[in-house]
Design a protein that fits this description.
The protein is α/β, with parallel strands linked by helices. 37% of the residues lie in helices and 23% in strands. It contains 13 helices and twelve strands. The longest helix has 16 residues.
């Protein structure tokens, strides 16, 4: 029901009940716990890929389910160093895309990591796509360093110093069938003012990024899809480090990445913050969100419903905010 309105959701609930009454078994997967309690007979709680048990709906409460969804091992939480945070630099005012995101407003300081969390379908990725110009806003404005920006395309965003590391690198970021050089120099080439590309410069810039980010590759002429997930992600991030940006948006920065590359990516994000960049980080990984963020914006049903200072906040409390309990 993540993309359904109230009437459509009610119709779906009626369909599920009718199927059950006909003796058909239903497996219903949802973040929305009120739906589970409305139509469920039993519920299985999953956490980090493991079953936390199966319970009769009559014998468990919403609070007990939430407690079973959290309580991860401390080793999953990254311990980051703190950064001096400067003045507000990025202002997002009343961004609205009808039917997608509604009247979203927040600001980000220089050196701050502003996390954005919420359930799948809450509008997180849709929001950052609008900020990057990949999708259009119907209303609202973006202000950077006191200047109102016109961001109608990703080219506009790049020109204004906004970088986006997308959620789906294979579908939206990688140039499949192309080598590491082309994938690394892509944004720099977009900004290049001449008629011909400088291949020697591209090779040098790629060597610098490969060394800086410790990209494990046989050679920079290797196809990007031949790299591991973590090294692919480093190349995608590296393309944005060649030309300086003011705002870095990370959408699920460590999705499909091993633990070693994950910590390297966290270090890169912190280094950008230390250089006074505005960081927006969308993440479904709760330990990541709580470990890295200075403040966390809570998205629900396309709206930014809360902004939380990340001080001694518990995972259980954040999940309640995401769900709206």
């Amino acid at each position: 029901t993540s993309s359904l309105g109230m009437d459509e959701t009610k119709a779906l609930m009626d369909i599920v009940r009718n199927l059950r009454n006909r003796g058909i078994g239903i497996v219903y997967i949802s973040h929305y716990l009120e739906e589970i309690f409305e139509i469920g007979d039993r519920v299985t709680v999953l956490k980090d890929g493991r079953s936390m048990g199966t319970f009769s709906i009559e014998n468990i409460t919403v609070e007990e389910i939430i407690r079973k969804m959290v309580g991860r091992d401390a080793s999953l939480f990254y311990r980051r160093r703190k950064v001096d945070i400067g003045d507000f630099a990025l202002e997002v005012n009343n961004i609205t895309s009808w039917g997608v995101v509604d009247n979203v407003t927040f600001s980000v300081r220089k050196g701050e990591i502003f996390g954005i969390g919420g359930l799948v379908g809450s509008g997180r990725s849709e929001l950052v796509n609008i900020l990057f110009g990949a999708d259009r806003a119907d209303e609202g404005e973006i202000v950077l360093n006191g200047k109102k920006l016109k961001v109608k395309s990703p080219q506009d965003a790049v020109k204004h110093g906004i970088a986006l590391i997308t959620e789906d690198r294979k579908k939206l970021a990688m140039l499949g069938g192309r080598d590491i050089v082309e994938n690394t120099a892509l944004v720099h080439s977009e900004n290049f003012k001449g008629f011909l590309l400088d291949r020697k410069e591209e090779d040098k810039l790629t060597d610098d990024i490969v060394n800086k980010l410790s990209v494990a590759a046989q050679d920079k002429s290797q196809k990007i899809e031949e790299l591991s997930g973590g090294n692919q992600q480093k190349v995608i991030i590296g393309r944005w480090l060649i030309d300086d940006s003011d705002v870095y948006i990370f959408d699920e920065p460590t999705k499909g990445v091993d633990i070693g590359a994950r910590e390297q990516i966290y270090e890169l994000i912190i280094e950008l913050a230390e250089r006074g960049k505005c960081i927006i980080m969308v993440s479904s990984d709760m330990p990541e969100l709580l470990s890295m963020s200075d403040r966390i914006g809570v998205m629900r049903n396309g709206r930014l419903v809360d902004i939380v200072q990340n001080k001694d906040i518990q995972e259980e409390d954040m999940i309640k905010r995401f769900i709206g309990v």
